[in-house]
UniProtKB/TrEMBL annotation:
Pathway annotation from the record: One-carbon metabolism; tetrahydrofolate interconversion
Keywords, in A-Z order: Hydrolase, Multifunctional enzyme, NADP, One-carbon metabolism, Oxidoreductase, Photorespiration
Source organism: Oryza punctata (Red rice)
Function: Catalyzes the oxidation of 5,10-methylenetetrahydrofolate to 5,10-methenyltetrahydrofolate and then the hydrolysis of 5,10-methenyltetrahydrofolate to 10-formyltetrahydrofolate.
Organism phylogeny: Eukaryota, Viridiplantae, Streptophyta, Embryophyta, Tracheophyta
Name of the molecule in the record: Methenyltetrahydrofolate cyclohydrolase
Biased composition (Pro residues): 71-85
Length: 392
C-alpha cells in the first residue's frame, strides 16, 4: 500500500475510532504527508463552519470590561431603613459577639513584649511610616488608630500628610524617602487615593521588604499561589482569618461568601480562604442573585463598603458573619460628626447568625494589630532576628 493510500486508510480508521489518532506518529514521513493531503479538504470544511460560528476574542474581551465596581443604592421605594439600635432584639437568644477588641489586645500585648526584647537585643525598635493623601475623614480616622496602635506597643511611627491635589510624583517621592530610611521597616499608603492618581504605580513604588500592607504585586501573586509564601498578607484579610481561627470556626470545606472583591479586602481574603481549603463564592456589584448565594453560606464576610447592605434575610440560620465594613454615617452627637456602621444590618443579623463581629469593635482593631505584627516581622528580618515572616 502506497504512502497516500495508507494515510487515507488510517484517516478513515481514526474517524471511526478517535482514540487511534496517536497512531499517526507511527507512519513514515511520506505517509504522514499523504495523511495531511487527505485530511486537508475536511479540515478546510470544518474551519469554514468554525469561522461562521465565532471570531477570535480580543485581549480586551478576554480580560473583561474596565467598569468601576460601584454598588448602586437600592431604589428609594425598595430601601429598608435599619431598625433603631436594640429595637426588638432578644439578646438572650442572639448570636455570639466576636470581640475583636479582646483579640487585638492580646496580640498587641505579645507585640509589645517582642518590641522590648528587640530593643534590648539590637538597640532599635520597628518603624512604621504612613502616607496620607487628602482629607477624607474615614482615612484620617484609620490613620489615627494606626499611630495610636504604634505608640501602645513601642513601634516608632512617621506620618507624611500630603494635600489631595498633589501629583503622583510627590507621593512616590515620599514613599522613596521612606524606602531609603533604615529606621523604617513598614510603609503603607492609606487608601483610597484621589481619583487622579495611579494607585498601582504608587503601591508598586513601596519596597517589597517594607510592604507591610501586602499590596505589592509580588506579594499578591505569591498569595495566589498555594506553593509560595508572600512576605506580607493584606492586614484586613489576616484579621478576618484571625478572628475565625481564634473563634474555633472550621474553614476546611466550608462554603464562605465574600462580598466585595477589592484588592484591599475582598480579593486577598478570598485567596487566603482558599489556602485554608474553604469553598469560596465572590459577590460583587454585578452579581445577579447576591441574596440567594449568600443565604447558602456557612460563613459570610462582607467588605462592600455599603451600609446595611446585608440584611437578616440574606443569612441562613447559624451562619457566621464577619463584617469588615466601616461606613461613616453623619452623626452630630459624635465628636467627629459621624459614626461608623457596618455592611451588615446588625440588629437583623444578630437574630439569625450563630456568631457575628460588631462595628466598631470587630475586624477594625484586629486589622491594626495585624499591621503592627507585620511591621514587627519586617524589623526582625531587617535585624537578622528571623529568617522568614510568621507562617500563615
Amino acid at each position: 500500500m502506497g504512502g497516500a493510500a495508507a494515510a487515507v486508510a488510517l484517516l478513515a480508521a481514526t474517524r471511526r475510532h478517535p482514540t487511534a489518532a496517536p497512531l499517526v506518529f507511527l507512519l513514515p514521513r511520506g505517509a504522514r504527508a499523504g495523511l495531511h493531503e487527505a485530511a486537508a479538504p475536511a479540515a478546510e470544511e470544518e474551519k469554514g463552519r468554525t469561522r461562521s460560528r465565532r471570531k477570535r476574542s480580543s485581549s480586551c474581551r478576554l480580560l473583561g470590561p474596565d467598569i468601576p465596581d460601584a454598588w448602586d443604592p437600592p431604589p428609594r421605594s425598595a430601601a429598608r431603613p435599619p431598625p433603631p439600635s436594640g429595637a426588638g432584639v432578644d439578646y438572650e437568644s442572639t448570636a455570639t459577639i466576636i470581640d475583636g477588641k479582646s483579640v487585638a489586645e492580646d496580640i498587641r500585648f505579645q507585640i509589645a513584649e517582642e518590641v522590648r526584647q528587640m530593643k534590648n537585643a539590637v538597640g532599635h525598635v520597628p518603624g512604621l511610616a504612613v502616607v496620607l493623601v487628602g482629607d477624607r475623614r474615614d482615612s484620617e480616622s484609620y490613620v489615627r488608630y494606626k499611630i495610636k496602635g504604634c505608640e501602645e506597643v513601642g513601634i516608632k511611627s512617621l506620618l507624611a500628610e500630603l494635600p489631595g491635589n498633589c501629583t503622583e510624583d510627590v507621593v512616590v517621592d515620599s514613599v522613596s524617602r521612606f524606602n531609603e530610611d533604615p529606621s523604617v521597616h513598614g510603609i503603607l499608603v492609606q487608601l483610597p487615593l484621589p481619583q487622579h492618581m495611579d494607585e498601582e504605580r504608587i503601591l508598586s513604588a513601596i519596597s517589597l521588604e517594607k510592604d507591610v500592607d501586602g499590596f505589592h504585586p509580588l506579594n499578591v501573586g505569591n498569595l495566589a499561589l498555594r506553593s509560595r509564601k508572600p512576605l506580607f498578607v493584606p492586614c484586613a484579610a489576616k484579621a478576618c482569618l484571625e478572628l475565625l481561627l481564634q473563634s474555633g470556626i472550621e474553614l476546611m470545606g466550608k462554603h464562605v461568601t465574600v462580598i466585595g472583591r477589592s484588592k484591599v479586602v475582598g480579593l486577598p481574603t478570598s485567596l487566603l480562604l482558599q489556602r485554608h481549603h474553604a469553598t469560596v463564592s465572590i459577590i460583587h456589584a454585578f452579581t445577579t442573585n447576591p441574596e440567594e448565594i449568600t443565604r447558602q453560606s456557612d460563613i459570610v464576610i462582607s467588605a462592600a463598603g455599603v451600609a446595611n447592605l446585608v440584611r437578616g434575610s440574606w443569612l441562613k440560620k447559624g451562619a457566621v458573619v464577619i463584617d469588615v465594613g466601616t461606613n461613616p454615617i453623619e452623626d452630630p452627637t459624635s465628636d467627629y460628626g459621624y459614626r461608623l456602621t457596618g455592611d451588615v444590618c446588625f440588629e437583623e443579623a444578630v437574630k439569625v447568625a450563630s456568631a457575628i463581629t460588631p462595628v466598631p469593635g470587630g475586624v477594625g482593631p484586629v486589622t491594626i494589630a495585624m499591621l503592627l505584627a507585620s511591621t514587627l516581622d519586617s524589623a526582625k528580618l531587617a535585624y537578622g532576628l528571623a529568617t522568614e515572616p510568621h507562617e500563615l
